[in-house]
Design brief:
Elements (H helix, E strand, L loop, with lengths): L1 E2 L5 H14 L3 H19 L13 H17 L2 E3 H9 L4 H14 L2 H10 L9 E3 L4 H6 L13 E3 L2 H12 L4 H9 L11 H4 L7 E6 L7 E6 L7 H32 L1
Parallel strand pairs: 1-6, 2-4, 3-4
Antiparallel strand pairs: 5-6
Helix pairs in contact: 1-2, 1-11, 2-9, 2-11, 4-5, 5-6
C-alpha cells in the first residue's frame, strides 16, 4: 500500500489494523505513516555513521559525509604550499622549501621531484604539477561517487581554487538522502528532515504518487530515483530495512491502542 518497488506486506497488514482500530479510512493512515517511513529511510540512506540505527544523529551523519568528501579530494590532490611546509619543518629545510615553491610555481617538475625525494616525500613525486584540474577527481570516482584508492595525482599550485572546489563538493553532501525528501513533497505532513538534506546541491530526485483515496486497494508510491551515489538495488535495500523497522514500530503502536480500547 506504500509502494516503491519494496515488499511492504508486513507493514500493510498493520496499516489496515490501525485504520480499523482508529475507525478511519485506510488512506488517512497511509498518508500519515508515509511521512514517518520517509524519515526512517532517509536516516538509513548515506551518509550515515556506519551503523544501520534509526537513532543515529543527523549532525553526525552530515559530519561523516563532509569528512568523506574532504578525505576523497585530499587523496587526489596536495597543494605545493603544504608540501613546502613539510619540507620547511625538516632540518635545513627553509631554503629548500623556498626552492620547492619556486620550482612548483614555474612548473620545473625535475626539481620538484628531486626535492621531494631528498626530503622523504617521494610518494608525492608522481603527481602532475600545475593549477587545479578537477578532471583528476572525476576520473578517480566510482559509481557511488567515492574515490578509488591510489596516490596523489596532482600537486596544486593554486591552493585557493582547490579549497573553493572542496566547498562546492561539500554542498552536495546528502544528495542521495534528498531523493526521499523530493519524493515526499506531496505529503500534507512533511517528514521532519534537516535543512542540509533538502538543500543538498547537484542531485536528488524522487517520485510521489498518491492513490490513497481509491476505495479499492489504495496506495502511495514513494521512490528515490537519484542517479548519483548508489545503484537502485542499494536504494531498495534501504527502503526494505525502513519498512521492516516501521512495521515493528507500528505493531507495537497498534497493540497498545487495542489494549487501551479494551480497558474502556
Amino acid at each position: 500500500m506504500i509502494s516503491g518497488d519494496v515488499d511492504t506486506m508486513g507493514l500493510d497488514s498493520w496499516l489496515v489494523k490501525k485504520a480499523s482500530v482508529m475507525g478511519v479510512a485506510l488512506g488517512v493512515v497511509l498518508r500519515e505513516e508515509a511521512s514517518f517511513l520517509v524519515e526512517t529511510v532517509t536516516k538509513l540512506t548515506p551518509p550515515t555513521d556506519g551503523s544501520m540505527r534509526v537513532g543515529q544523529s543527523w549532525a553526525v551523519q552530515k559530519r561523516m559525509g563532509v569528512n568523506a568528501v574532504r578525505g576523497d579530494i585530499g587523496g587526489v590532490y596536495v597543494t605545493s604550499a603544504s608540501l613546502a611546509g613539510m619540507i620547511r619543518e625538516q632540518t635545513g629545510g627553509e631554503d629548500a622549501a623556498k626552492g620547492f615553491s619556486k620550482a612548483a610555481r614555474k612548473g620545473n617538475v625535475p626539481e620538484v621531484q628531486r626535492l621531494l625525494y631528498a626530503y622523504g616525500l617521494g610518494t608525492y613525486a608522481s603527481g602532475v604539477v600545475g593549477q587545479f584540474d578537477p578532471s583528476h577527481h572525476r576520473r578517480r570516482r566510482n559509481r557511488r561517487g567515492r574515490v578509488r584508492r591510489g596516490g596523489v595525482e596532482q600537486i596544486v599550485t593554486n591552493g585557493p581554487v582547490l579549497n573553493a572546489y572542496k566547498r562546492s563538493q561539500v554542498k552536495k553532501v546528502g544528495q542521495l538522502k534528498r531523493g526521499w525528501w523530493v519524493a515526499a513533497r506531496g505529503l500534507k505532513r512533511r517528514p521532519r528532515l534537516p535543512a542540509w538534506v533538502s538543500a543538498a546541491e547537484g542531485g536528488g530526485s524522487g517520485i510521489f504518487k498518491d492513490m490513497t483515496r481509491k476505495k479499492l486497494n489504495p496506495y502511495l508510491q514513494l521512490s528515490n530515483t537519484s542517479k548519483h551515489g548508489a545503484s537502485q538495488n542499494r536504494v531498495l535495500r534501504f527502503g526494505e530495512l525502513a519498512v521492516r523497522l516501521r512495521a515493528g514500530k507500528l505493531e507495537r503502536s497498534v497493540s497498545h491502542m487495542v489494549r487501551r480500547k479494551w480497558r474502556r
